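Researcher: If convenient, please comment on what follows.
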Amino acid sequence: MTRPGFHLAIPVDDLAASRAFYGEVLGLEEGRSSAQWVDWDFHGHQLVTHVVPGARPEAGRNPVDGHEVPVPHFGLILSVDAFHVLADRLRGADIPFVIEPYRRFAGEPGEQWTMFLHDPAGNALEFKAFRDESQLFAK
């Protein structure tokens, strides 16, 4: 399936920390940049980190499966293998999880793996992987 790409711009307070996290830890390719922003190839989508000084508290959390999911958050749907490779990469980089990788809806429609973490600026990310991606919206 061919999907349209998305563009997402997020605030960060430190471009060096952003480069270390998005470039080195997540392994994203850096695109255009300036002293105030960096474009990242977010698996074919454009993610832009813009310097915005100051702390940004979370808007809130939502209870899901006994976990407190940070809101807002963004992320990607990966293959199951890529999900586990990323989880291991994050563990190897000592990135703390907000919600450790776990499997939801085991044996049910929409079975998936999910994990949540924050970037150095406090932006929440979720990465997930479906056993069968055609069940992305299964009820």
User: Anything to note?
Assistant: The beta strands are 7-12, 29-33, 37-41, 46-51, 60-64, 67-71, 73-78, 97-104, 112-118, 124-130.
